[in-house]
Write a structure and sequence with these properties.
mainly alpha, 65 residues, 77% helix
Length: 65
């Protein structure tokens, strides 16, 4: 239990960064008219593939107009 209490101050910024990345990816996805693939699939990738999901969306899913 003491180990967990020591790790919490380190985990909070990582969790906030992860939530921010997910929020930005979902916001960007909602604003785009076209993506590479269906939007519903990108929502699943962003939400279910942990940290790598939003990064995959930004690298592979965005379609420049």
């Amino acid at each position: 239990m003491e180990d967990l209490q020591r790790l919490i101050p380190l985990l909070i910024p990582i969790a906030l960064l992860q939530l921010g990345l997910i929020a930005v990816a979902l916001f960007d996805l909602a604003r785009r008219e076209k993506t590479k693939g269906p939007k519903w699939a990108w929502v699943l990738v962003i939400l279910l593939v942990s940290t790598i999901g939003p990064i995959l969306y930004f690298v592979l899913g965005r379609q420049e107009e």
